[in-house]
Amino acid sequence: MKPSSFIHPALLALMAFVGAFPASSRADEAYEIKELRAEIRALEQKLNALEAKLAQRDQTAAAPAQAAPGPAEAPNVAQAPVPPPRPAETPRITIDDTGFTFASADNGTFIKLHGLVQLDGRLFADDPGIANNDTLVIRRARLIFEGGFDRIFSFLILPEFGGGATGTSNAPVIYDANLGIAVTPELKIVAGKFKSPIGLEMLQNDAVLLFNERSLATGLVPIRDVGIMATGSLLGNTVSYAAGVLNGAADSAYTNNTDGDNNKDFAARLFFTPFVGHGASPLANLGFGIAGSYGLQNRTGSLAGGYKTDGQQVFFTYRSTVVPEGEDYRISPQANYFSGPFSAQAEYTVSAVTALAGASKAELRNTGWQGAIGYVLTGENASYNGYTPKHNFSWQDGTWGAWELGARIAQLKIDTNAFPVFADPGASASEATSYGLSVNWFLSKAIRVSFDLVQTEFERAPGSKTTINPLVGQDEKAFLTRFQVGF
Q1: Can you give the CATH number for the domain in which 269 is found?
Q2: Of 26, 144, 152, 174, which is most buried, counting CB atoms within 10 Å of its CB?
Q3: Is-contact 152 194, C-beta < 8 A?
Q4: 138: which strand partners?
């Protein structure tokens, strides 16, 4: 009810009441009535002003609804009430033994922080007396940043703060720095610095390797390179592929951010898992494939960073005057298999280079292979990406984490034509074969302690009469330990 509907009747009643007094009332009563009438008129003016103000407020409140008619553009139709704005969804923050994750509510945009620290101990029997024996070393110390935006764009930045990985300096090094664009579910473009898509064991995460160090065969592939690569999975994840154009890196080498010539390497990999998704099949986790690279070099850089043993001792290098000149290529057939707690892995690698030393030039083909098996004693399912213990180590609860045993045989053979022109037979071996056993104890997914016992046998190079490298004159018997935090 509006104020006017009851204000005016009340005023009329009040005036009638006042008019009912007789004319013969006393003068003071007439004066009081006059004052009362004046107050009534003032009150009526205030009420009229209040009524006008209320009407103006109602018109202002109705204005937005009239300015925005409905889909039928019918301003005379009553408008539905506008719902209040929905509160913003809360971002997600996750902190666990896989890292620190900051993500949007739908996980479409995220940033993850991981870390990896490895403290290695190396103890050698029959010490050959070279500088890096019987030592403790920070093998890796990394902060790993990765993220994604809008489910399409991704990035990875991996700096290395430990000197043990390169063995040359304690200065920080950027190992990975790349941008990914998921064009379709089957195609992703990666540009920047990343692992070369060749070695099966090289592509495996450093934190979940069966042995502390990768095999001799992995020494024949580059570690990281700069370039552009297409990668993805096809046919229901039964085929994965990678193919890219790279600056070109030598065996066992980390490329820098520059390239010494206009030539580039082409690298590619095809890997098949034809029975994936067939959970009842014993071949559900069988994978096999082939990878390789081809390129040209023009007297820039070196041929290799040096081939190393499990104990990270160099047993072969080219002479410092040797440069690559001409074609180089690699080819690597590879396979792995997982069944419950059992795992197996094998690969064969050929690395061919065209070497130039003064007036001498030759194509050198070095070969390597490795075969390894593992078994998780505590029953967890082994996989290429590692596994999570069913129960973390706890002295109070009587649980011991996960235990795994491993065995491996590997070999790397140098082309005999490398001696004596391209390599010094007194400083380098022509062949190395290693036999290893490993014990891995995962106290939790993030904490690992490993013990490796590896013996490496060497073949002296043709024409070797004296040995200036004590390592190649006897076998390397190494006991290697690792304490690891990886999240």
Answers
A1: 2.40.160.10
A2: 144
A3: no
A4: 119
Domain check: are 204 and 56 in the same one? no
Residue 151 domain-assigned?
no
For residue 120, the surrounding DSSP H or E stretch is: strand 110-125
Q: Is residue 418 part of a domain?
A: yes
Q: Of 197, 113, 187, which Cα lies nearest the Cα of 155?
A: 113
Q: Tell me, yes or no, whether 427 lies in a domain.
A: yes
Q: Look at residues 332, 116, 374 and name the one whose alpha carbon lies nearest to residue 218.
A: 332
What angle do helix axes 27-67 and 4-19 make, rounded to 10 degrees?
Answer: 170
**Structural tokens at position 55:** 């009407």
**Could you say which residues of the chain have pLDDT below 70?**
1-36, 47, 54-88, 127-132, 163-170, 466
Task: Tell how far CA 105 is from the center of its chain.
Answer: 20
Report the distance separating Cα 442 and Cα 376, nearest Å. Answer: 10
126 and 246 housed in the same domain: yes
pLDDT digits (tens, 9 = 90+) for 174-186: 999 999 999 999 9
If asked whether residues 231 and 334 sit together in one domain, one would say yes
Q: Is residue 415 within 8 Å of residue 365, measured between CB atoms? A: yes
Enumerate the β-bridge partners of residue 247: none
